[in-house]
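Course assignment 3, question 2. Fill in each field.
Student: A.L.
Task: Predict the tertiary structure for the chain below.
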Amino acid sequence: MRIVHVAAELAPIAKVGGLADVLLGLSRALSEKKHDVEIILPKYDCLDLKAIENLQVAVHDLPTFFAGKSHHNTIWQGRVGGIKTTFIESHDLNNFFARKTIYGAPDDPARFSYFCRAALEYLLKCRQKIDILHLHDWHTAMVALLYQDLYQPQGLKCSKVMFTIHNLAYEGVCKREILTQAGLSTRRFELIKDENQPRSINLLKCGIVCADTITTVSPNYAKEILDPKENGFLNKVVTRWKKKFIGVLNGIDYTYWNPENDPHLPFHYSANNVSQALKIKKKLKAHLRQTLSLADEECPIVCAITRLVPQKGPELIKQAIFRTLEKGGQFVLLGSALDPKTHEEFYKLKRKLAGSDHVHLELTYNEPLSHLVYAASDLFLVPSIFEPCGLTPMVAMRYGTIPLVRKTGGLIDIIRDEENGFAFGPPTTEGIYSALDRALGCWFNHPQKWKRIVETGMQQDWSWNQPAEEYLKIYHENSVAVTEFS
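Answer field:
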């Protein structure tokens, strides 16, 4: 089966969030099952080129029509994580992918609409039939409509167009002129008109309406999307196309996240011997304390590794820091905030707590340190306000660290309270205090129960093997009939 992914991110070369990890993990799992997998990505000027093997020019000049003009592109190819990866380097006057960043520009809708068109031009030039054209989030949703209107009539053959929603909160609402800039008819405006801003289009809606099948990144998140109380202005379109929706729980890359041979750890351990693993984790705790200048004493380490954005519950994280200190624990935060106000709030908190040897706030992301924090901590905090999937608690369990999560989205699919983690409901001070008190009480007073919870999490299979099988089943299933696009 030939599977082509079109996306805006790919780990480790162009990563902002979980989308990048999902794309690499799923692609590798499908490739290991002997399928022909290709990923198409913009050639950003901020790519980590060291992680791309055999990068070379494949097509010197591929023209793309956009905004009334033909623009030149260079097509590059290499391998990322063993997967064939195609990069589109645009030579337009706007320097769409030479911004030193992946997202955040005011013209992001134009940038990614251009990329959608260029990706299809490349696929048309290849003259190879595609079994599955798999699109991810609003950035590449327009591919579905462009294929239907412009490229299928030119002879591009594709058996099925899939669309995965990694986060419904990002809709790609933009001015209607993007339609005509991409070469689409203005009569398509009504099809993808935003329900809240009737003079704008909604690119996420474009993917929902035009793709054959839609997946989300966990079964419970699919349920939440289909709940009228949760899906906001997309309620009408989601309700109309609800039969297209399927929830598949993501996995994590077991090669990259592996405590048996993790290059960022000074000591290693395995789920095959949890008693030994807990002894090694004690040595790692001592190493982390020395690294971060924390007090060397017998107490639990609670950690959070997260982006400090509203979705992730930063206010609850602050409350958890103080509660942990009150209860005799230590807290390590590895968190980055793009919003200057949020960064300043946590920077003030860091200064306030500077005299404590029981807390360390690292207000940037540090990949090697994150591995050590995952492995050395006892409790991993995920107090998300909403969470489509939640890969980090899977990583934590892989490393023998117990997650404490809020009951939302994919976290409901992953964590069973007091079996493989701890969970709380409403996003309140009382909720997180109660869960923390139970978890820390278990660590201090019930070591055998704690060990049992660690063992349950470590021995669960969070790899991409099962999710890949589910995706293959969906790939092979007949699509929900799309009777009209007009």
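Instructor remarks: The CA atoms of residues 66 and 114 lie 6 Å apart. Residues 108-126 form the longest helix (19 residues).
Grade: pending
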